[in-house]
Design goal:
The complex is a heterodimer of chains A (117) and B (116). Helices cover 0% and strands 53% of the residues of chain A. With 117 residues, chain A is mainly beta. Helix content of chain B is 0%, strand content 52%. Classes of the chains: A mainly beta (117), B mainly beta (116).
């Protein structure tokens, strides 16, 4: 089990540029989550998918942020255009969801540290 | 509005002793609580969880206690080991059996240092 794989580990970009973060969830997991960690706000949920369908994107800060999950083994989080305040560590997590049961905990990747200058 | 609070930013403990990490919450709708451990440059790793229908859950050296009336939970680590040194996050969910189970609200974390 390779765990949740995120790429890149570090990304440095200039304000105004497009940034794409990538995530490969654990095989067999059907839920995928994007979290962001900042000093000011801590860990906060941005968006999550169940069976590749976005369920709740209320945590996405602005329209500049978008996320996709074209298949069960891949997801992207895109920021366009990026701004310095987007600098943070972005975590992807996956889990296996079954209705009406206490589900498996979230398994997090090692994150992408984004710096926008 | 911080719905999950970890009021102690740091805790220092001697190896072999008990570590007690505390967490308070305000949202009565939370029905599932988790503790995660995080090392630098890594993602959070799940440690232990408890549902609101229980008041205690044990897993090896780790025990979580839940006091619903006080809206308080704690994580006990006995005995503490130097390898336990990490940041510990308390998290809560308001939809344990539903589609929003993974919509976790995290505390700010407590840095635990276990001295040899």
């Amino acid at each position: 089990d390779a765990g949740v794989i995120q790429s890149p580990r570090h990304e440095v970009t200039e304000m105004g540029q497009e940034v794409t973060l990538r995530c490969k969830p654990i095989s067999g997991h059907n839920s995928l989550f994007w979290y962001r960690q900042t000093m000011m706000r801590g860990l906060e949920l941005l968006i999550y998918f169940n069976n590749n369908v976005p369920i709740d994107d209320s945590g996405m800060p602005e329209d500049r942020f978008s996320a996709k999950m074209p298949n069960a083994s891949f997801s992207t989080l895109k920021i366009q255009p990026s701004e310095p305040r987007d600098s943070a560590v972005y975590f992807c997590a996956s889990s296996f969801w079954l209705p009406s049961s206490y589900n498996s905990p979230l398994h997090f990747g090692n994150g992408t540290r984004l710096t926008v200058t | 509005d911080q719905q999950v609070k970890q009021n102690s930013p740091s805790l220092s403990v001697q190896e072999g002793r008990i570590s007690i990490l505390n967490c308070d919450y305000t949202n009565s709708m939370f029905d599932y609580f988790l503790w995660y451990k995080k090392y630098p440059a890594e993602g959070p790793t799940f440690l232990i969880s408890i549902s609101s229908i229980k008041d205690k859950n044990e897993d090896g050296r780790f025990t979580v206690f839940l006091n619903k009336s006080a809206k308080h939970l704690s994580l006990h680590i006995v005995p503490s080991q130097p390898g336990d040194s990490a940041v510990y996050f308390c998290a809560a969910s308001a939809d344990a059996g539903g589609t929003s189970y993974g919509k976790l609200t995290f505390g700010q974390g407590t840095i635990l240092t276990v001295h040899p």
